[in-house]
UniProtKB/TrEMBL annotation, chain A:
GO terms for biological process: amino acid catabolic process; fatty acid beta-oxidation using acyl-CoA dehydrogenase. This is Electron transfer flavoprotein subunit beta. Belongs to the ETF beta-subunit/FixA family. The keyword Transport applies. It is found in: Mitochondrion matrix. It holds the Pfam family ETF. Keywords: Electron transport, Mitochondrion, Transport. One of its GO terms (molecular function) is electron transfer activity. The lineage of its organism: Eukaryota, Metazoa, Chordata, Craniata, Vertebrata. Residues 24-216 form the Electron transfer flavoprotein alpha/beta-subunit N-terminal domain. The keyword Phosphoprotein does not apply. Heterodimeric electron transfer flavoprotein that accepts electrons from several mitochondrial dehydrogenases, including acyl-CoA dehydrogenases, glutaryl-CoA and sarcosine dehydrogenase. It transfers the electrons to the main mitochondrial respiratory chain via ETF-ubiquinone oxidoreductase. Required for normal mitochondrial fatty acid oxidation and normal amino acid metabolism. ETFB binds an AMP molecule that probably has a purely structural role. The electron transfer flavoprotein serves as a specific electron acceptor for several dehydrogenases, including five acyl-CoA dehydrogenases, glutaryl-CoA and sarcosine dehydrogenase. It transfers the electrons to the main mitochondrial respiratory chain via ETF-ubiquinone oxidoreductase (ETF dehydrogenase). One of its GO terms (cellular component) is electron transfer flavoprotein complex.
TrEMBL record, chain B:
It comes from the Eukaryota. Residues 24-208 form the Electron transfer flavoprotein alpha/beta-subunit N-terminal domain. Pfam families: ETF, ETF_alpha. It is found in: Mitochondrion matrix. Heterodimer composed of ETFA and ETFB. Identified in a complex that contains ETFA, ETFB and ETFRF1. Interaction with ETFRF1 promotes dissociation of the bound FAD and loss of electron transfer activity. Interacts with TASOR. One of its GO terms (biological process) is fatty acid beta-oxidation using acyl-CoA dehydrogenase. This is Electron transfer flavoprotein subunit alpha, mitochondrial. GO terms for cellular component: mitochondrial matrix. One of its GO terms (molecular function) is flavin adenine dinucleotide binding. Heterodimeric electron transfer flavoprotein that accepts electrons from several mitochondrial dehydrogenases, including acyl-CoA dehydrogenases, glutaryl-CoA and sarcosine dehydrogenase. It transfers the electrons to the main mitochondrial respiratory chain via ETF-ubiquinone oxidoreductase (ETF dehydrogenase). Required for normal mitochondrial fatty acid oxidation and normal amino acid metabolism. Belongs to the ETF alpha-subunit/FixB family. InterPro entries: DHS-like_NAD/FAD-binding_dom, ETF_a/b_N, ETF_a/FixB, ETF_alpha_N, ETF_asu_C, Rossmann-like_a/b/a_fold.
């Protein structure tokens, strides 16, 4: 019986229209609605389902960031995780934090907690990196099942159906392993009110990266953030013949 | 006396000052044995020497194509059964390509390592960069200099210009952001490299691919994307007829995939293949493609007539 670590990231809510700061130093986050990264929700759901099938014993939700991320951990607990770990990172370290630093934290936690599986979302909808799972697997020398659309535990192995260019691929990897959840893996449950109340009693441990021996230094700097180039105004055409004529004139066809 | 200083001799002069000459390792993309050299274009913008790495069970044809690409100096070929999969080089049986990349890195002195932002590239490169203790820059759309790159964030709603101060820069390249490198004029030397023995942590079982003779989505010049407004899988046939005439690739929104009209590998958008960022599932807003045509009303009629029209013209 085993323990699963699930990573959850607090990001700007997917429905919010983001704005670039006037000084181009980043995106406006103050006063903006945040929630759990959708791919992380899918990861949590998968872990909780494995526990409900009695294939794993305990699910631990982990998040790295300032105090506000505990809200995200509470949501994971309300969805069915057993306990949480809040790795405190704030200020400049938090702004510069990227997949490399996070993966070091997860690798250290996996060893400390003796986890047999780490399930992460495929990517975060803010930085769109799609790296943390792969990096964590490398640091632990564990196999990786990325972009998973179906996960089946088969004894000491995991069968993973992956979404790849051109279709689907099935691989079988030995545990311990890292999985990253793709969109079609499952449909995450809503946390019900009774579960939200129960979650308040579940424990969230606090620690710092230094406690895990992790150096948060980042050697990547964001020089500026810009809006994407605005598209020229559109032209409305009435008939298909007009459309073809315009495309011809444009050199497109 | 004045001597012409070329890059090589300048480098030798500056060596004591520890300036490294750019040397990039590229894992070149190919689709159905057709080379789509986009990562090579990005590498050439970094400057310096380009070496391609090709691993597979039967590399001869692809290696031959790569050798003709302008700017490629050398190809390292690792041919071995341990890379078995349906398509050469793209799918693996275990961690071998990763271990191979690691061995190559220890052996040569690359300053940059890139690959296309395909499922393979995205799966492999971050793993390698974590072992090297460096960051990966995913899905770059522009190379500003050997250490500065542009990439999109928030599903393409913002652009970040990023400077990478790592000793080795690892990045994946967005297919639609760079021109395909010319497959002519190059004369690269090929070198065989030893393949590592399989570790046995992962086993490749099978693949189910949708075979297509159409251009590959992420490097196509024209993409025609249909959404749930097409209302059925049969209506998608109209899309196929149109794109056949145009030589375009077919894409679709997540809504259409989920509704079962089309297979998942044709999905475009943030969570599908990134062709160009898509926000509105009902309109087609492909910010980085050159022309966008939105067809809202009477889709069926419009496509049908357009196909008819194009048939008439050719």
């Amino acid at each position: 019986m085993s323990r699963v670590l699930v990573g959850v990231k607090r990001v700007i809510d997917y429905a919010v229209k983001i704005r670039v700061k006037p000084d181009h130093s980043g995106v406006v986050t103050d006063g903006v609605k945040h929630s759990m990264n959708p791919f992380c929700e899918i990861a949590v759901e998968e872990a909780v389902k494995l526990k409900e099938k009695k294939l794993i014993k305990e699910v631990v939700a982990v998040s790295c960031g300032p105090t506000q991320v505990t809200e995200t951990i509470r949501t994971a607990l309300a969805m069915g995780c057993d306990r949480g770990i809040h790795v405190e990172v704030s200020g400049k370290d938090y702004e510069a934090m990227g997949p490399l630093q996070i993966s070091k934290i997860f690798a250290a936690l996996a060893k400390k907690e003796e986890a047999s599986l780490i399930i992460l979302g495929k990517q975060a909808i803010d930085d769109d990196c799609n790296q943390t799972g792969q990096m964590t697997a490398a640091l632990l020398d564990w196999p990786q099942g990325t972009f998973a659309s179906e996960v089946t535990i088969d004894g000491e192995k995991v069968k993973v159906v992956r979404e790849i260019d051109g279709g689907l691929e099935t691989i079988k990897i030995s545990m311990p392993a890292v999985l990253t959840a793709d969109l079609r893996l499952n449909t995450p449950r809503y946390a019900t009110l009774p579960n939200i109340m129960k979650a308040k009693k579940k424990k969230i441990a606090n620690m710092k990266p230094a406690d895990l021996g992790v150096d948060m230094v980042s050697r990547v700097e964001v020089l500026r953030v810009d809006e994407p180039p605005t598209r020229l105004a559109g032209v409305k055409v009435e008939t298909v013949d007009d459309l073809v004529a315009k495309l011809r004139a444009n050199g497109t066809i | 006396m004045f001597t012409a200083i070329n890059r090589r001799s300048l480098q030798q002069f500056l060596l004591p000052f520890q300036i490294r000459f750019q040397s990039t390792l590229v894992r070149a993309e190919h689709h159905n044995n057709q080379l789509t050299p986009i990562a090579i274009t990005a590498a050439s913008k970094v400057g310096g020497e380009i070496t391609c790495l090709e691993a597979g069970t039967n590399c001869a044809m692809v290696a031959d194509q790569i050798s003709k690409v302008q700017g490629v100096k050398k190809i390292l070929v690792a041919q071995h059964d341990c890379y078995k999969g349906l398509l050469p080089g793209d799918f693996w049986k275990d961690e071998s390509p990763f271990i191979l990349g690691w061995d190559i890195f220890k052996q040569f002195n690359f300053t940059h390592f890139c690959a296309g932002a395909s499922a393979f590239g995205k799966n492999l490169l971050p793993r390698l960069s974590a072992k090297l203790d460096v960051a990966t820059l995913s899905d770059i759309t522009e190379v500003k200099s050997q250490d500065t790159f542009v990439r999109t964030i928030y599903a393409g709603n913002a652009l970040a210009t990023v400077k990478c101060n790592e000793k080795v820069k690892v990045f994946t390249v967005r297919g639609t952001s760079f021109e395909l490198a010319a497959v002519a004029g190059g004369r690269a030397a090929t070198e065989q490299v030893a393949s590592p023995s399989p570790v046995g942590m992962s086993e490749w079982l099978e693949q189910s691919l949708t075979k297509s003779y159409r251009p590959e989505l992420t490097s196509a010049k024209v993409v025609v994307s249909g959404g749930r407004g097409l209302k059925s899988g049969e209506n998608f046939k109209l899309l196929y007829d149109l794109t056949d005439k145009m030589g375009a690739a077919v894409g679709d929104t997540r809504a259409a995939v989920d509704a079962g009209y089309v297979p998942n590998d044709m999905q475009v958008g943030q969570t599908g293949k990134i062709v160009a960022p898509v926000k509105n599932p009902f309109a087609i807003m492909l910010a980085q493609l050159k022309t966008v045509v939105l067809i809202k009303e009477a889709i069926k009629l419009a496509f049908f007539r357009l196909v008819e029209y194009l048939e008439h013209q050719h």
